[in-house]
Amino acid sequence: MAQVETSRYSDKDLEAFKQVILSKIEATQKDLDYYKEQLKQTADNEDTKLRGLDDGIGTAEAERLQGLASRQQKYIGYLKNALIRIDNKSYGICRETGKLISKERLLVVPHATLSIEAKQNR
């Protein structure tokens, strides 16, 4: 008799994925807070020092920090969307093939919505 492919992850699996995602959100939020604090300090330093050669360096550093902060914010958004999919019990299902995304992939990229197969066919 052929084995039927599971259409979704079990509630136990979903809870385990949820814990992974929550820990990633916490770590990413700490990074984001750090970047925001660095941006604030950069802005404060710009206000107190004389304008000159350092002006370009400060601007470049502020832009770099802003980019890092923006990236962390997007990542948190992706992770929060994954939590919604867990609540809907649709987490881990490839949006193109309808097959389960491997646990290994989800542990590395917990916000993934495509299986490796679907990603490679793009």
Q: Sheet with the most strands?
A: none
Note the total helix count.
Answer: 4
Shape: elongated
**Would you identify the regions where 5 or more consecutive residues have pLDDT less than 50?**
none
Strand content: under 5%
Q: How many β-strand runs?
A: 0
Our Rg estimate from Cα atoms comes to 20 Å
Order of helices and strands: HHHH
Mean pLDDT, to the nearest integer, reads 88
CA distance, first residue to last residue = 34 Å
Structural class: mainly alpha
The percent range for helix content is 55-70%
How would you characterize the overall build of this protein?
The chain has helices at 11-48, 54-87, 103-108, 116-120. The mean pLDDT is 88. The chain has four helices and no strands. The chain starts with 10 loop residues before the first helix and ends with a helix. With 122 residues, the protein is an all-alpha fold.
SSE map:
Layout lengths: L10 H38 L5 H34 L15 H6 L7 H5 L2
Helix pairs in contact: 1-2
Give a short overview:
The protein is mostly helical. Helix content is 68%, strand content 0%.
Which descriptors apply to this entry?
single chain, 122 residues, mainly alpha, 4 helices, 68% helix
